Amino acid sequence: MDMDGDGRLTEVDFQALAHRWKAVAGSVDPERLASIMTGWWPVLRAASDADGDDAVTIEEVLLVVEGLGAMADAVSGTADAMFEAIDLNGDGLISRSEYGALIETWNGTPTATDEIFPRLDLDGDGHLTRDEFRTHWTEFWAGDNPNAPGTYVFGALVE
Ligand SMILES: [Ca+2]
Ligand SMILES: [Ca+2]
Ligand SMILES: [Ca+2]
């Protein structure tokens, strides 16, 4: 998420993320997608910016993540907001191509997700339901199992 690569998350990173996300919005209301992305920043800053410098470092994030296991409602609320953003055609399911668009948007480059998607699609019906996505998202942010499928919710790990 550190779009400008300065080692800290700031409002600029979230604006850049929103800008990229708008480009893949297609027929979806791009302003709504952008507001979901930029809406993350004040929440993250309020929760994480321990030294109040309007920037969030990885150390500050990890302090918060340690406590997320006790903040299940907050985590699942974020999952739902993200689901709305990723479900570009609004059919209540995340398709393989919608998931691919998410990861490419995040990475800013074409990224293969053919191996990852089936691991996330727990019942193998070709889509991620809201419940599947919430499970993975919660595992990613608040779980302790590195082998859980949710580890890959943002795509493959860097080798
Ligand atoms: Ca940054
Ligand atoms: Ca800070
Ligand atoms: Ca969909």
Automatic annotation (TrEMBL):
InterPro entries xref list: EF-hand-dom_pair, EF_Hand_1_Ca_BS, EF_hand_dom
The organism's place on the tree of life at top rank: Bacteria
Entry-linked PROSITE patterns: EF_HAND_1 (PS00018), EF_HAND_2 (PS50222)
Pfam family name, one: EF-hand_7
Residues of the EF-hand domain: 74-109, 114-143
A GO term for molecular function: calcium ion binding
Protein name according to UniProt: Calcium-binding protein
Source species: Planotetraspora silvatica
